[in-house]
Give the backbone structure.
Amino acid sequence: MSKNLYEKVWDAHTVAELSDGSTQLFIGAHLIHEVTSPQAFGMLEEKGLTVKYPQRTFATVDHIVPTNETEEPYSDPLAQEMIDAIRRNTRRHGITFFDTNTGMQGVVHIVGPEQGITQPGMTIVCGDSHTSTHGAFGAIAFGIGTSQVRDVLATQTMKMGKLKVRRINVNGTLAPGVTAKDVILHILKELGVNGGTGYAYEYGGEVIDNLSMEGRMTICNMSIEGGARCGYINPDETTFAYLKGRPYAPKKEAWDAAVKHWEAVASAPDADYDDVVNFDAADIAPTVTWGINPGQGIQINETIPTVSTLPEDLQSSAREALEYMDFQEGQPIEGTPIDVVFIGSCTNGRLSDLQEAAEAVKGRKVAEGVTALAVPGSQIVALEAERLGLDKIFTDAGFQWRQAGCSMCLAMNPDKLVGRQICASTSNRNFKGRQGSPTGRTILMSPVMAAAAAVTGKVSDARKVFTITG
Amino acid sequence: MALEKILRRSGKAVPVVGDDIDTDRIIPARFMKCVTFDGLGEYMFYDVRFDPDTGKKTAHNLNDERFKEASIIISGSNFGCGSSREHAPQAIAKAGFVAVIAEGYAEIFFGNSTQLGIPCVNVSHADRLKLSQAVEEDPAQEIIIDLEKMVVRYGAGEVPCAMREANRQALMSGDWDPLQELIDNADKADAVAASLNYI
């Protein structure tokens, strides 16, 4: 019986067993942002406590930053109050803060990997459910609530119950035009939005092995949409190549020692799992959502399901979704008119996401009446994209090129849907009202599918629109 | 400071119908632009309680006079899915709710709630419907969640409920806020840190 990565990392970070039987876990890196941390600092100060390991805490600002204004004070005084609070708190406690003037600010889950803070074998937490993103490096990374942010600030540890581990193999080779986003939307549609409750997901198999780090991050990012608190991929040469030379990555002799350690932390080939699920890449096509949770997905050439044919426990949610989206059973999803396109977020706001979309829209125009946003996930992504001329390609096509932030993934900054608008979005959640209008509608998809929606004005098969073939 | 040993929670209940009630629904993100949790109560389920076009109160149970005194939420499966925002259980607590009865919970929401002393118990689909119906018929009846016996009592009888044992123990022993225990183990934590190759 050999250990998987989750068990090895868990054991290495276990501090103690607590009175109720759960575990006190040491946290290797704590990432914080402006929305879920100010209350935690408040609680800390109320109790007269300080930050125990400020050198293992890293902050940035992402949710509330406007992507179309840089001048402060921001036009939204509440947003200004929040950025002021994190500046004050990080300064007071000696925490590294990737502020808007550092050239390193961005969505917290893009900044961590980009800086090399995220490394294999670590435990990483953040007051944000998409912390699962960092699992792409073979870290055990999960989202926590604000009281736990307080706990980690005060002790660099937290209370946690051990999860089971489900190995998810994606075997074979993806067809042209099928991306990491389609893989995770497929997994969510098959395993459901609560199928992962109580589990960590370990992704593997040929498809995962062949993905870039950016694609792996997209997959781990959405683990939480399946109910799995964390998702991870065993570290390999792709992981090491990505990390080498990054600011916080080990240097010189320390690098070689680290790689040795990282190789050892990967799951043994004969590791045990609580469950194993297999997927075949041949069954995966460009996938989009039709409903109000990320598990309500279909392939682009399929029709919206008939409620009575769904398993009974999914029916009430499906009925609610049809009513909210104003879609009909049996209606093809392809051809559904859209109003807004959003390319960005911690799911798909990295350089390769923007490259794929830019390459597709190059020389084309955004359809009339469609508002299209391309939002880099970090200032570094923005800079690299601009160096490659992607901003020009996007703006020539009629996209708006914005500054780094969470933007239209959620409604905490000026980027919002209006009324009943439908958005073709590369983000992670299609919940009711998620994108800022309480009646707004979201269709989740990959960057290249969002690009196809932008130029056609409707949900389209990117393989046809851009003639993608093997 | 010793915390309350939570052995039971009782009060009137309100059915919040639906599965996969996400944390964006419980507290829409636009109301999270705040540096404290104070005042979140009035925005709980805001977009469900108010018509987005007219701003008028909807016919939702949470607006219904019959359920005005409710302090327990009854809902479907995967309650609290989505974001890790503690603003969700905080809003529920600040709106005067003390417990949730549902068919299931998203993990982070469940943990956040325990840490705030809000028991979230699981009941079967059939029992959820039974409880909801009973409460719809007689909203004034008292619902008692008994964490010792793990049952939910209502006018006509009782149904079994479940909760992860560690969380149940934490609530019953008054250890649901772990901070002091974590602080007390500081030496052990430092020893683990010293053993890690990257600290």
User: Anything to note?
Assistant: The beta strands of chain B are 8-15, 70-75, 99-102, 120-122, 143-146, 151-154, 157-160. The mean pLDDT of chain B is 97. Helices of chain B lie at 23-26, 46-49, 87-94, 107-115, 125-137, 165-173, 179-184, 186-195.
